[in-house]
Amino acid sequence: MQNILIPTDFSAEAHNALEVALQLARRTGGHLTLLHVVDAPAGSTMVTTGGVASGSAREGVFMIELLKRTKQRMHELMAEVARMAPEVAVQDCIATGTVNEAVLEVIREQHFDLVVVGAHEHAPTLHLFTPDSLAEHLVRLAPCPVLTVKHPAPDFAVRSIVFASDFSPEADKMLPSLRQLQAAFPEATLHLLDVVTQPNGYAEAIDHIHAFANRHQLPAYEPDVFNAPQVRLGIPRYAAQNHADLVVMLTHGHTGLLHLFGNNIAESVALQAAAPVLTLHPQ
């Protein structure tokens, strides 16, 4: 987690993400890139002089003024970061285009290890009836891990890491990320959580957790099985009840109708849980 991207729209939510990203960079020796996307009119693109390559004259003047204001706000944010964490290397980036697609393009081009993104905490079903947020879009489609942050965290400390899974063989793909987190936060307790929807699933779930831990020789962990009517509801409830500082999950991105009916649990948890949620796709 050395090369970290923080998309910002200069909102309070984006600032929450920045606070967490700075703490991670301090822990890992990483460097940050602050990205702002200017939502440009169709057919307009930014050039090196800050002008506009095409579009009407009126749109061109508007874009030039918008880019000037954006650069000023970015300059102010960079100065704030220098005061908050002078030891962390930070650079800025301004792109134009549709926000969701422009952020994904930057991630792919610059090969980021992690994206830290701010979001609103959603009620369990609210996000099904609202337009996709950038956070939801990135959890679904970003090729690198995404850390979703929903609350201020100026002193982000991780004492409790919850890895939520069914501990099938696919969960083995999380091991490199889990080990990175344990190295960054050696004082944290690792909770291995399986949520079951039927009480008679407890024994099998515990067996899967221990088998996973033994398979990877995890030296210390807390096995936890939590009962809930739905897995996507149980994980945020468990995290809240046990004061988790970080939730970690695999995700399977979907688009279109498959997204609506595919029941992406990690995507739901990333938006519902109060704690920061780290999601990544299986490799």
UniProtKB/TrEMBL annotation:
> What are the UspA domain coordinates in residue numbering?
1-150, 159-279
Superkingdom of the organism of origin: Bacteria
InterPro entries recorded for this chain?
Rossmann-like_a/b/a_fold, Universal_stress_UspA, UspA
Record-stated family: Belongs to the universal stress protein A family.
Official protein name in the record? Nucleotide-binding universal stress protein, UspA family
What species is given as this protein's source? Hymenobacter daecheongensis DSM 21074
